[in-house]
Amino acid sequence: MKKIFILFFFLLLFKVSFSQLPSSYAGKPFADAKYTIGAQIIPGRVELAYYDLGGEGVAYHDLSAENEGSKLNHEIHDYGSHWRPGIEGYTAFFRENEGVDISYTKDWADFNHPNKVDPKVNQLYIGWEEDGEWTNYTVNVIKPGKYRIITVYGNKDNKSELWLNGNLATVLKLPEDTGSFHHWTQATIGEIIFPVAGTNLLTLKYNKGANLGYLDFLWVEE
Asked: Would you say 186 and 117 are in contact if contact means Cβ atoms under 8 Å apart?
């Protein structure tokens, strides 16, 4: 009995929760032969291309069944191929059999002009978003509290919603139009409060108009 009381006190003291996932959620953290970490960790970076496994209607919703980024990277045009020399197929055709539209930053498209902030070379990003599309992310929150959210993005200012465990948590606002999908910058786009630590579900609900690479979650305060 004493051990049970001590454990209960520990959980209260450190606001530990093993899982806040909605009980009906059937998605699983992304994993493949190269990415084996499991749920992405907060504080830290959530790579948007690493949305959950589970398919359409569970891990994501996309208005078209094709991955537009992979489709484009297979094509050859007068100006060249979107599959750049030296880039392995894993990056060029990342998750190509799913509906979420993913591509990567390329030399002649993303680094042949000045950016306010350069993304990483070969940074995976989600693009071609349409209003009403969304992606789910199972995350492991190490420390509860308020977090500042930073992203790297290109193009139009827009508002997207970030939901936590099935409830609207914050509206993300891109502060400026960069003028092109391939002109990149970085900005603080909102804040979110995680009441407890443990496994949580983030849902990013998109509005049309931007390429988005990742969300950085920086702890601010309890």
From this structure: yes
In the chain, how many domains are there? Answer: 1
pLDDT, one tens digit for every residue, the chain (222 residues): 555 555 444 444 444 456 899 999 999 999 999 999 999 999 999 999 999 999 999 999 999 999 999 998 888 766 667 778 788 999 999 999 999 999 999 988 899 999 999 999 999 999 999 999 999 999 999 999 999 999 999 987 788 999 999 999 999 999 989 989 999 999 999 999 999 999 999 999 998 889 999 999 999 987
pTM summary value: 0.89
> Is 210 in contact with 129 (CB distance < 8 Å)?
yes
Contact in structure between 191 and 220 (CB atoms under 8 Å): yes
Which helix H or strand E contains 76, and what residues bound it? strand 76-77
Q: Give the range of the structural domain holding residue 87, as residue numbers without chain letter.
A: 20-221
Domain membership of residue 3 (yes or no) is: no
CATH number for the domain spanning 134: value is 2.60.120.260
